[in-house]
From TrEMBL:
UniProt KW Nucleotide-binding keyword: yes
UniProt organism field: Aquimarina spongiae
Gene Ontology MF, one: ATP binding
Name the record gives this protein: Putative ABC transport system ATP-binding protein
UniProt keyword annotation of ATP-binding present: yes
Stored InterPro entries: AAA+_ATPase (IPR003593), ABC_transporter-like_ATP-bd (IPR003439), ABC_transpr_LolD-like (IPR015854), P-loop_NTPase (IPR027417)
Keywords, in A-Z order: ATP-binding, Nucleotide-binding
Record-annotated ABC transporter domain positions: 2-210
GO cellular component: plasma membrane
Amino acid sequence: MLRTQSLQFSYQDSKNETLSFPDITIGPKQGLLILGPSGVGKTTLLHLLAGLLPAQSGDIFVANTHLNTLSRKQLDKFRGQHIGLIFQRSYFIKSLSLIENLSLRERISKTKNDRYRKEQLIMQLGLSDLQNKKVYELSEGQQQRLSIALGVIHKPKILLADEPTSNLDDVNCEKVISLLKKEAEICKSNLVIITHDQRVKSHFDNHIIL
Ligand SMILES: Nc1ncnc2c1ncn2[C@@H]1O[C@H](COP(=O)(O)OP(=O)(O)OP(=O)(O)O)[C@@H](O)[C@H]1O
């Protein structure tokens, strides 16, 4: 479940320009696509939903937790355990292998070390041959697919993805979208995607345009 109300945000150095966002309500297991032209505030909205930026005003509820009421420490814990993030720029340790990065993510989110799940995810993303390679040895597209595995490994309540298919060819775009949808279904989580990628639109009924 995800719900926002009267959400507004302004960056300190943005000459008082305030970004206002439409209210969002999506029920259990529903997906949502966030569309809009460059600069309108899509990434900012995703960062607000992840609790990475504090709302200037308005409310955000993720899985019945009111994010605005959490302290920074509680928010970090909540994000680590219940939010899956897939960003354009990924955060992994490039000197570790794919499997080691996934194990680290499990430890951070306090989920059990599940070798089978890691290998399954890596296989579904077409990375099996590379699982013991260091991340710096991967192409950009392969790193993007790894970032998806890192986003879902801990079975989050909400999965937030910023342009997850932008560097992928048609075959891998299809694979990634169906993997994200399948994982969201398995984890009973909401899948929220920001994209310019026209190929993704047909996969979702629920859209908002900023
Ligand atoms: N750290 C920042 N400091 C000041 N202004 C910012 C900052 N980050 C973004 N902005 C401004 O806030 C507005 C929204 O930016 P945001 O990145 O959320 O847009 P977007 O819709 O995701 O754009 P794109 O599709 O190009 O990625 C833009 O006008 C941008 O210039």
